[in-house]
Design a protein that fits this description.
By secondary structure, the chain is mainly alpha-helical. It has 2 domains: 1-37; 39-76. The chain is built from 4 helices and no strands. It starts with a helix and ends with a helix.
Length: 86
C-alpha cells in the first residue's frame, strides 16, 4: 500500500492535467454564453450537474468516487430489459 505522499507524487501531473481540462471546458462554456445566448434548459441542467459534481469533489472523505458514480448513475430499474425491448 502506498502512502498518501507517494500517491500524490505519482498522480499529481495527471490530476493537474485533468483539472486544467475541466477548467478550460468551463471557460469555453462561460465565454460562449457571454458572447451568444444563455444555455437552453437541457444544457443548463447538465451544467448544474457538473457544478454539483465539483462540490462533491471538494468534500473531504475517502468515497468521493463512489459519490460521483452514484450521482451520475440512473437508479436500477427491475424491468429494464422489457423497457429496452431486449
Amino acid at each position: 500500500m502506498h502512502t498518501a505522499t507517494q500517491i500524490l507524487e505519482n498522480e499529481f501531473l495527471e490530476v493537474r492535467a485533468k483539472l486544467l481540462e475541466v477548467a478550460a471546458t468551463l471557460d469555453r462554456i462561460d465565454r460562449s454564453v457571454a458572447e451568444s445566448a444563455p444555455l437552453d434548459t437541457g444544457a443548463q441542467s447538465s451544467r448544474n450537474r457538473v457544478d454539483e459534481a465539483i462540490r462533491i469533489l471538494l468534500e473531504e472523505g475517502p468515497d468521493r468516487a463512489e459519490q460521483l458514480q452514484r450521482f451520475f448513475s440512473h437508479e436500477y430499474e427491475k424491468d429494464w430489459r422489457r423497457d429496452m425491448e431486449i
